[in-house]
Design a protein that fits this description.
It contains five helices and no strands. The protein is mainly alpha-helical.
Length: about 150
């Protein structure tokens, strides 16, 4: 089994990909005039993607906290990860909230059509942008500072 600090980079790719798939899925549905809510097949698939993205984002944030603690214990300054940690926590929380909203809409069989569909797509795109910025700062930690992949230079 890999060290626990290496689970974060393994898990975090799921919410990244899933939120992008959700955005494409919803944009396609919007362009075709399909309802993004309710209990139809299209909305059910979207809800499943959103819930999986939310759950995996919370899991990635959990393991990210462990990875940060490990890095700090090894001598990395925790200030290096402040931006990524803040964005990651925000992303995990927002993904979970979006998943809960989508699950509630599905559970209550609320139809989402018209301008509400556009609003759903805008939220999806905002979440995609958030994950891109978060990933940039995470990549910077690894590729620029070598957090949890290179020894600490003192």
């Amino acid at each position: 089994m890999p060290p626990i600090e290496q689970i974060h980079p393994m898990v975090l790719h799921f919410p990244i990909v899933l939120i992008m798939i959700l955005a494409v899925h919803d944009l396609f549905g919007l362009s075709r005039g399909l309802p993004l809510g309710g209990r139809g097949t299209y909305a059910t698939v979207a809800t499943s993607i959103a819930v999986t993205a939310g759950a995996s984002a919370l899991l990635a944030a959990f393991f990210g906290d462990i990875a940060l603690d490990t890095a700090v214990d090894r001598g990395f300054q925790d200030g290096l990860a402040e931006m990524h940690e803040g964005l990651g926590s925000t992303a995990g929380t927002l993904f979970a909230i979006w998943a809960a909203v989508r699950a509630f809409v599905w559970w209550r069989s609320i139809e989402i059509t018209g301008w509400k569909s556009s609003l759903v797509a805008i939220v999806d795109i905002a979440l995609v942008l958030l994950v891109i910025v978060t990933a940039y700062f995470g990549g910077q930690l690894v590729y620029e500072y070598g957090v949890n992949v290179a020894p600490v230079m003192k």
